[in-house]
Every structure is written in structure tokens, then in C-alpha cells.
Amino acid sequence: MTKILRFKTAAGIFHVARDGGGRYHILFNDESMGDYGDMIDAIEGFVHESGFYIIHPEMAYPLDTFDLGIPDDISGWEPC
Fold first, then answer.
1. CA-CA 20 to 30 A from 71: which of 4, 24, 38, 58?
2. Is 19 in contact with 27 (CB distance < 8 Å)?
3. Per-residue confidence of the chain (80 residues) as pLDDT tens digits?
């Protein structure tokens, strides 16, 4: 996968990446949190869908991604 955008949070860095088939993925620790047909849908879908939890890499407890302040606007992400 090719990483295109990133957003840094207190728990780590999230990426938007494109796979070889043209699908877009939200990645955390290089694991896909979901795939989408286009980049805007990937960001908006990930931010607005409920039920995404990650395990904090240092403290090993679950975090709701909603609480990490990840923007749903592409302008809030930076290029890789």
C-alpha cells in the first residue's frame, strides 16, 4: 500500500493509503481500519462511523477513535 496522507494523534499516526486495486484504507500501525472507494469517503466514513477502537500502543487500553480529534476534512491531514 502507498501511504498518501497522515494525521498524528496522542495514540499514534493514522494514514490514508491506496492499495494496488485502487481502494483507500485508513491505517493505524500499518493495519487497515477499513477500505473505501475514494479518499474523501475513507476519511469521512472512518471519522463518522461509530465503533472504531484501537489499543493504545504504550498503555494497552482501548481508545475510541472519536476521542482522538481526527478531522473529517481532508485539509486537516498532511501529505506523507
1. 58
2. no
3. 999 999 999 888 999 999 999 999 999 989 998 899 999 999 998 888 756 777 766 767 777 788 888 999 999 999 99
What are the sequence ranges of the domains in the chain? 2-69
Cell output for 17:
493509503
Full DSSP string of 5-74: EEEEETTEEEEEEE-TTS-EEEEETTEEEEEESSHHHHHHHHHHSS--EEE-TTT--EEEGGGGT--SSG
C-alpha cell at 13: 499516526
